[in-house]
Amino acid sequence: MLNVTDLGIYFDVFEGEARVLNGVSLHIGEGETVSLVGETGCGKSVTIKAILRILPIPPARIVSGHILYKGQDLLSMQKQELYTLRGREIALIPQEPMTSLNPVFTIEKQFTDLIRWQGRYRATWVDRLAKSFDGAGKRAVRQRALDLLEKMNIPDPPRVMGSYLVELSGGMSQRVLIAMALAGNPSLLIADEPGTALDVTTQEQILQLLKDRVEKEKLAVLYITHNLGVAREMTERIYVMYAGEIVEEALTQELFRAPRHPYTQGLLASIPKLTGEEVVGIEGRIPDYVDPPPGCRFQPRCERAMARCQEVQPELVPIGPGHAVACHLYEADLAEAP
Amino acid sequence: MESPPALLRVEQLKKYFPITAGVLGRQTGQVKAVDDVSFTVPEGQTSALVGESGSGKTTVGKTVIRLVRPTAGDILFDGTNLSALRERELKSWRRQMQMVFQDPSSSLNPRRRVADIVATPLEVHGIGTRRERLSRVRELLDLVELPEKYLYSYPHALSGGQKQRVAIARALALHPRFVVLDEPTSALDVSVQAKILALLARLQQELGLTYLLISHDLSVVKNFSDYIAVMYLGRIMEMAPTEKLFARPLHPYTRALLSAIPVVIEEELEVIPERITLEGDIPSPANAPSGCVFHTRCYTVSDICSVESPPLVEVESDHQVRCHLFSGG
Predict the structure, then answer these.
(1) Residue B1 per-residue DSSP state
(2) CA B241 to chain CA centroid, nearest Å
(3) Cα of B276 to nearest chain A Cα, Å
(4) Can you say how many angstroms the Cα of residue B216 is from the centroid of all Cα atoms in its chain?
């Protein structure tokens, strides 16, 4: 359904050229839930911004690659055409509810604006004119918003509709945003860490709710997160991203059972476990994008780096069913056993 | 009890913030941020306060080192009651207790260099000459494993983990005995978090520090602390040594909190109770529910809960719970 191939995005910054995304490829099938996991600054937000075409160009520059949605190239698409997809078929749940809703308008105003905008390219102008006379359109739009809020388990939707952002709790405004994302009956949902700004028990509520809705409506989901535990719970397949590159791709079960890339292994070992296993971090920090290390971008922090790692950038190679790794350690294996 | 003597003993601590209205600032209500909290922190160990936002855990942390003046209650630090002391008398005690804040980007002054930031506590207490202070700063940076080349850097040039190292170095400048760690790693990535936690554990070993860890992350707390107090809306709901709390969580809130942890390996699921999803949101502390503060979200609620606040009772040695289910009913 969504096919991103060899996406390269550079940013022109004061210091020169920041090579942020370096050949990112990912694909999401119909009704599939996929996570993109990585730490701060690894390029996951840039990736989804590119997919949604909300990346500021300039300073950003797309240097390579295609983003195909159901066969259509999102990157070369006309604005008018894009509007029939974005906000309708492809919807975004933003990360921070507090900064994603406008504080000076009521929820009703923002929600009905959205629904009316979504209807704009569908209804003919005669329909619209007729509706605006009898007020039925307005009522229908309001009713639709109320229904959507109700489906998100929001108690007393009319009260929430009349509220301003400050009157709602974090969990409640996150639910409003999910309801808004689902308003256009999307088939692809991009979720940018919903719930990270919330408390554990509230986050748990939101995630369960989202999971239910996704299953019920058979949505495809691209779930962006830094939390492997959440990714494990929410999605079937995981891409691990480091410094603008996909380093590992695997089915969720497989990734947790047998992580292969040293970065994935390090990441898993860094998470404190309830079973009290020893916690090991990863030395160093994410590289400078203006002057990335030669070869593999993880090589300066890698404990198993070889001479070859500094020379050649490893490609993502399949090592098992649905499992691919970009690491020289596994290329050797592949060569030995054809 | 075989545990070491308490360095800090907090008794019936209360902190109410007034809510004022109008130009005259008339008090119209109060927020019971901390309500009747008692606990002890044994010397050389780590006690943790766990809770969600608005539970009052940070207020407790700030109150025990008297950054905030308590409304009532006693804070006995090494036998001295800090809650009764005046600011001037407090200054000498302040050398013994320090705090590391949550977000290093906002707790470090962006206009000062690392060397100045770390030397600040020494200056405030008038310790050493300029040269002696600088050598102490070098020593401290070495202690927190920050390369000396960052001595004259500004905070913006450092990564999150490095900034937190600077904040830790600053907190240790005066050889404190007691450090309050307020969510020391929640602004950091996991790979960095692991390094900072390892550093804090090493420092505790080497310097014999006593920690009060404030956190919402139960996985961190499980690995890092000896005692846990679970807070909800300004009250301690359950308190026990870490092992006991995880082996036998009793309070419905604790159970829900534990069950909500997103785990990464299968074996962890055996440690936590079966998934419980709580209804609703945490109520506003300004408008706390009557009776048991948790009753609005509790899944084992009964009639008495909305009427009477349950006392904190000891169900087994060292394990206290505030719930009617266990208060002898």
Answers:
(1) -
(2) 16
(3) 9
(4) 9
CATH architecture for segment(s) A2-89+186-336:
3-Layer(aba) Sandwich (3.40)
Instruction: State both tokens at A288.
Output: 């400078």
Which of B179, B195, B191, B199 is CA-nearest to residue B48?
A: B179
Closest approach of B215 to chain A, Cα-based (Å): 11
Question: Which tokens belong to B261?
Answer: 């942890």
Residue B118 burial (C-beta neighbours within 10 Å; 0-12, 13-18, 19+) = buried
> Which residues of B fall within a CB distance of 8 Å from A226?
189-190
Instruction: Please work out, in degrees rounded to the nearest 5, the angle formed at the alpha carbon of residue B131 by the alpha carbons of B152 and B208.
Output: 85
**Percent with pLDDT over 70 in chain A:** 92
Flag the least confident range among A161-165, A197-201, B108-112, B323-327: A197-201
Specify the long-range contacts of residues A207-213, CB closer than 8 Å, at least 24 apart. A207/A233, A207/A234, A208/B277, A209/A152, A209/A153, A209/A175, A209/A178, A210/A93, A210/A178, A210/A234, A213/A151, A213/A152, A213/A178, A213/A182
* Whether A274 and B189 lie within 8 Å, measured CB to CB: no
pTM given for the model: 0.83
For residue A124, pLDDT over 70 is answered with no
Q: Which fold has domain B6-96+176-326?
A: Rossmann fold (3.40.50)
Distance CA A137, CA A118 (A): 13
The domain ranges of chain A are: 2-89+186-336, 98-184
How many A-B residue pairs are in contact by the CB < 8 A criterion? 119
Closest residue by Cα to residue A38 from A254, A273, A263, A314? A263
* Cβ distance of B282 and A39 shorter than 8 Å: no
Query: Contact A280/B194, CB-based, under 8 Å?
Result: yes
pLDDT tens digits for B110-146?
999 999 999 999 998 888 888 999 999 999 999 999 9
* Tokens at B116, concatenated: 């100045």
